[in-house]
Amino acid sequence: MVEVSTSILTVEKGEESKTFFELEAGKTDYFHIDVMDGKFVEKDTYEKMLEYASYIKRISNLPLDVHLMVEDIKSAIEDFIAVEPNIITFHLEACKSKEEVKEIIDYIKQNNCKVGIAIKPETNIEEVYEYLPYIHMCLVMTVEPGKGGQTYLKDMTEKINKLKKYIDENNLENDIEVDGGINLRTAPEVKKAGANVLVAGTAILMANNYGEIIKELKEEIE
User: Fold this and answer.
1) 3-218 topology per CATH
2) Which tens digits make up the pLDDT trace of 129-142?
3) Is 34 one of the annotated active-site residues of the chain?
4) Is 65 a catalytic site residue?
């Protein structure tokens, strides 16, 4: 089953309540929280995303899908665990050692939360394989992290394919999430390659009818 995680990165101040309610009515599966610290990536959305996530927690029961694009992963986990996210995803590239990766996986699990590992476009997919048995999801960035509205990088389709093949061959049960440039044109390609959680921001928030586009993004490939 394909699920949609709507990125709320570009939701305007003052429009939060209306937008979040409409997204819930439109049957988004998750709210995608893009947490950036201005160091790991140029943009800084940290306080805004903490504020939005806290607000969503008060008005909605929909799960939060927190994507940490930060250097100090542990501190960010401590801040965002308070909003009881369904899953916290951190970047492999932000870790200095395999030991650190394993420590963070354990730390997130100790806080009763699912774990995801994200990788940037230039990171080889093989680098994540050894962690797959211990995590719930792998997030393949299909654009450079840190900016909204970018175009999907075509080379990423092969990466998703490779990951899906490895998961299936090893009888693993990881979700494959894709983030970056996902819209009605690119969605069929990533779904066919094996992605089952699609992050979309601009494509959904620019649409006249959230429910309609979310439904189309979820449609299974024939």
Assistant:
1) TIM Barrel (3.20.20)
2) 999 999 999 999 99
3) yes
4) no
